[in-house]
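Here comes my example:
=====
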Amino acid sequence: MTTRSGGSEHPVEHGNPSDATVKQLYGTAFACAKPKCRAWLYELDADTGRRTLNSRVAHIHARSEGGPRWDPDMPEMDNRGVDNLLLLCVLHAWQIDQVPDDYPAEMLRGWKRAQLADYDSTHRNWSIGAEEVQEAIAPLDLHAAIEKINAVVPFNPRMRGRVGNWQLAVRREHGLRSSRLTPLVPVERRSAVLGWMALLDDPIVEVPTGQVRVLMARLGAGKSEQALRWWNQGLEDAENDPNTDIPVFLAARHITTSLESAILSALGGDPARHCRVVIDDLDSVTLQEASRLLTEARQFVHVWPGVSVLATARPGVPVPDEEQILVKPWSTRRGAELVEVALGGDVSWHRWNAETTDLLSSPLTALGMAARIRAGRDMTVSRARLLSGLTEDVIGPKVGEVSEATWSNLARLAVRILGQSEPVTAASFGSLPQLRLLTGTDLVVEDRGELTFALPVFEQYFGSEALKRGLTRLDTVATATTFPRWRYAIAFAVSTAITKAQEALLTALAQLNPGAAFWVLDEIADANSDHTLDGPSHEAIAALIDRRDPTGELAAEPDLPVRAGRWLRGAEQALLIGLGPLAESLARHRDGRLVQWGVWLEHGYVTVARARDQLPPPEVIRLAEECPPLGQWHQWTQQRFPTSDLGRWLVARCALQKRLEATISKQTLPVPRTSWLARERLHSLAKFVRGYHDRAARRYPINLAELRGIVGSWMETVNTSDHATWRGTGGQVDSADIRWLSAQLAVQDGETLLQPWPDGDQPGTGRWFWEQYSPELTLAMAADVVREAIIGYRQLVESAFPAFGDALGLYSMLPVRVEGIVRQPVNDEGPYPVVMLLSLNPDLHAQRSDIPSVDLQLAPEDGQAFWAFGKDRESTYRTTFGQSSLQSMELPLDLERPATYLAYQWLTQDLAEIGWLKNYRHPRPY
């Protein structure tokens, strides 16, 4: 009987089929009507021998208004009749009503005709009782249906329904936030911290539909939190708008197949509406893998324009400027507020200083500061020490609960995570009891069968534990390619090692990769620790050496000044071993060996003199007087004896730094003989020598035979003197320059020496040097200078700093292709140089040693295109160790060695970033 409740505004609902109709149905079928299903209408229980119903009566046109395939013109008798009914298994009876558009009425009628024909051909019949009739027409039990569906169909998120998926996403969002706070904030303060963060009035990032954006910032800056806020906004949209899909949150390391597969798997099918996707922590995978994921994201939003993708990454992942969203550092006030909320009380402001306030600029370090204060620790701590102490604060209360085996497994997990780009699966790592112990520490998270640390800093901390325990080797993790990924683990290991073990680690690191040693020293050493005029006593010096000497060999030396000299020499010698071919340029050597030292020690001040030619043994002798004569010694220096733990390493770094600055100022680091930088230096020296010999000579090209004769006579002076210098209007040269020039001329072909760069094609034009070059020649020279400078920079690194490798910013970016724009000053602008804006883009199809592609354009006079080029690519993206992908550089047309000048600019910036050159600006030669 058709019913309406209370008026026509309520839906029509027909009655159930009669018992006779249902029996008639079961008398004309024996299997599910869906083609190729063949599921029996009854199942036989093998254990009990009883038959159970495995089918349902399905309506072709729904019996209720608004139901699947409802036909408003169908009378109730027809709706309840056999022709509108068919028998299906539980799975397909549920399925045809979930997606009715995929199963139109005409298709179902076809199934019914085939079902009847199949029955007629087999002449079989089923008898059905009254109870089974009621079960067949009863409303479908969703729980029972899902149990049957799960047995035959792979799980799909859309099986939960939209409400279920939305509720699950809400719980996951809360779980993601809570799991990040668990190691840092006690349970009684987490709600307060979450509430405080929810009230922040920062605008939520915007990602246009059909676009990809990447949140870029350093470790712990709050990238993931901003991504979660954007994702949560998508959850709110999905709650209120049926045209918005439930957003997807993916960890980059968990995407083991294609990005498309991961997104579709999370959605349970194609994105049918607007959808937000987060890819968190791109820097947890290799640069190549991160680039692949971003490429796939761009392709995905092109195919599905209703999707927007937001990724997070630390600096180092190559991302076009237009896709970057830079996360700004927090203000000191905001960081301090978070500390107070996490602690539940005020913190005295007199405890803040310049170093600690810097730690308030990110959520991670602010919460780490709160954890240290809660644990009763000192606030005055460097970033590396704070990060290393953070894990100790978290695990401290549970140390008694964590077994030695679990601690070792945490270190093993860090080695696996830091040593590979793909996810570490729980199944591949250990047994179920081991995994439960790991996750029970709150430091490790198991998600979808994969293991990660709750915070990236924990990877670094337990990486350092692995180093201490011998689970990995320093010569494996501190190489030119692996050091950037392991750098904080190494810094933690060195900073937390005790006395002799710390010295042994630093010595090994210096010999293996001095660039890594310089960076670690910059992170953990207090450069002001020995800044006092009071010299230490002999007893204090002897105690320091005895406490920290890693070999114990110095204890056998009875003479304290000699023992002190050998202690200082050991640090410098370790760094020189690591520096390899550069060592002889930075310290006095003879026959490839470091010369003998003389030492005087009195009132806590030490004099170190370096011999002219005398070689060990012994390595160090005692000086006869405080100020030795320079006739016997090459040079000597005096300073307070360093008594801080890392003092001798800071002294060695400073000594080598001064000599490096002198070498860089002269631009005389070694490069291959065929390098363009060598060609520039050759021509510059040749021009000086010829001009010094004959000031009237201005002929080009330079005659090589004539030049060799002059250099030969100068070599006589070089060979008969300790050090010779020639000064002229073009600067000065010394013995080392003439030796290099003589060796270069010995292998030089031809009769003349040509200029490396052409003269201007507009001679005598204008007041300024750049006006001698036409725009066309300026552009051509700019491209050539940049190309040769990049090649020359690479040659400088590989010849002089081979162990530093990827610790040098620009070198870690190679190979690159260069796009840029060149701007000549307008005539009335004054004595300004030609300026280039260069965009250094990763070249995924080239090798590091390939000649780089350089594509430059000339800016029109109005300058708008020049500034637009910079604005379009504006970025503060920098590599791990400091280079920017967008650079503004001068084109030094007035210099004899323009490519050399640019190459050294890049090199000095890189060396400053790892802490070797301090506040150093590469001088412009004149």
Remarks:
- Residues 775-800 form the longest helix (26 residues).
- The longest strand covers residues 834-842.
- The radius of gyration is 38 Å.
- Confidence is low (pLDDT under 50) at residues 4-8, 149-159.
